[in-house]
Amino acid sequence: MITATRPVEPPDAGEFGLIARHFLRPGLAKPSQVALGIGDDCALLTPTPGWQLAISSDMLVQGRHFFPDVDPASLGHKALAVNLSDLAAMGARPLGFTLALALPEANDSWLKSFAAGLFALADVHACPLVGGDTTRGPLNICITVFGEVLPGMALRRGAGQVGDDVYVSGALGEARLALEIRQQTPWALAHTAEHAWPALIERMDRPAPRLALGMALSACAHAALDISDGLIGDLQHILRASGVGAEIEWASLPRTSAIATLPEPHQQTCLLHGGDDYELLFTAPAAARASVQTAALRSETAVHRIGRITAEAGSLHVLSPTGQTMPIAGQSFDHFSP
Amino acid sequence: MITATRPVEPPDAGEFGLIARHFLRPGLAKPSQVALGIGDDCALLTPTPGWQLAISSDMLVQGRHFFPDVDPASLGHKALAVNLSDLAAMGARPLGFTLALALPEANDSWLKSFAAGLFALADVHACPLVGGDTTRGPLNICITVFGEVLPGMALRRGAGQVGDDVYVSGALGEARLALEIRQQTPWALAHTAEHAWPALIERMDRPAPRLALGMALSACAHAALDISDGLIGDLQHILRASGVGAEIEWASLPRTSAIATLPEPHQQTCLLHGGDDYELLFTAPAAARASVQTAALRSETAVHRIGRITAEAGSLHVLSPTGQTMPIAGQSFDHFSP
């Protein structure tokens, strides 16, 4: 037989080189809870003794969650942000995340920019990439994020109680308005000054996960979730899980000037049915109002009391300034609605 | 203003109905470590005090990892099996998994079959689905699996030591032969009896993750991984991470009769470069031979000693029965190779 030795494959070839170039960060100090990061069959984490593990997974698909021409750095940011927002909604603190990525081609400049946006947000929240997968295929980004929360402290959807106040963080509707502007919807273009567009697009493309607020609220709030499908649609998840109803005061909904200057039907669309805001929607007992304000101050995140939980299971009323129930048009976003 | 109340959306609509119909399993007892399953912003797990968390994520794409006409039950099995195999390769025991699924359409009969295959394997290994995401898009399945391992007991790729024996579980190459048969490669059709095809296809479509073996080995083995890209390609991951070399005895490679009857060049293709076997490849000190056999017996999984770790970093020799280095042709599979 012929004698020959096959050389060991160089580590910069193909899939492994792609991971090494863009997703390994050898200079970075490993957080104490990451016992083993990228490069083995599994990552190993050392959870804090006595804490529970919070896990969420979101998949982003081109044409469904982002436009084909989206800035890859914004996409990297958003893919992680929507997952961190789920941790925020449970009151959990981040531990780390995995990234699975299907790419039509190994495009280095796209990946460099995507990784920059991803890691900039990861670093802000001390949430390291610990593992994942890359493959060739239609562009698809799947992130699974891990966090920690003390037992009994997680903010669950089913914990809303009759008499609770209903709150929302930040302001609502700008991401929806940005979407309409990007889609060149006539009413959005007509009622929004062009100089305001970049900030609105930024709001849609780079949501800020409300992690500090979520953690601060875990001691005083009851139910919580993050608004990804619109206030009305998402509030119904709390109502259904808690077996309660709600009244929302139209005038109390936090709106920026870009939203406040829209004609009322379009304000309704943005405020009540606007997805992608990633604000926290939560309930807390009236006795906890001071604690909620303290949590808002400590986390430097505005919160607004917008209504209350009622005993009438499944009923949801939006009240006008005169206390009358307003008609609500439109649907929240659903990936499988006809 | 007109008075109206918008009814709360029924829970069987769209995405939520799809999840409820196929992925909620209300009759199933919740394992003690799952504090909160599907339906909130995050799942909550209670890790066993003192254990480390092992995490792996794999993404399966149509045309890359499976054929468009694959049986959906097999696909459900395989999507979870390849992830469980990563836990097996670390010696970890399963805790649970998340599933993110992009589907071109909400096809109930496809989903029913997919879920049946998925849950049949999940139940065998007591590994519950704890959360996930569904969206519309080109078919893509991303599973992230969580397991537990005692600190210091994980089987890492970099733990191979000079003088270690090299082992592989089960038998090699049948998944590759099945792939060639499905692709109607002439040599595969010519040398394989037609009555053997279904069992070979089953081997490719429904790999058995070697979890019991991995857990049993964690006390006596050094390095381990699961063979997904082929023996030669995957062994090089251990060699590179451990800074060692290896000699493999061609005659010791475990082969079934379907492989043993192939002409030698095709045997080489299947045994050395066949992906998708999901057998464990591991090293253990010579002093642990009895313990390795005990682990094999306890886990009811065959293991075969196929070679040894050498000091010559990066060198990999396959030895003929007369002790000569054989020439090795072909590459292992890489998703981004040209």
Please give the largest β-sheet of chain A. Answer: 6 strands, mixed
Secondary-structure-based class of chain A equals: alpha+beta
The first-to-last residue Cα distance of chain A is: 65 Å
Strand content of chain A: 15-25%
Can you list the strand order of the major beta sheet of chain A? 8-10-7-11-9-12
- SSE order of chain A, as H and E? HEEEHEHEEEHHHHEHEHHEHEE
Please report the total strand number of chain A as a whole number.
12
Spell out the blueprint of helices and strands.
Two copies of one chain form a homodimer.
Chain A: H1 14-22, E1 34-36, E2 43-45, E3 52-61, H2 72-90, E4 93-103, H3 108-124, E5 129-136, E6 140-149, E7 165-169, H4 174-182, H5 186-191, H6 197-205, H7 211-217, E8 224-226, H8 231-242, E9 245-249, H9 257-260, H10 264-273, E10 280-284, H11 289-298, E11 303-310, E12 316-319
Parallel strand pairs in A: 4-5, 9-12
Antiparallel strand pairs in A: 1-2, 3-6, 4-6, 7-10, 7-11, 8-10, 9-11
Helix pairs in contact in A: 2-3, 2-7, 4-6, 4-10, 7-11
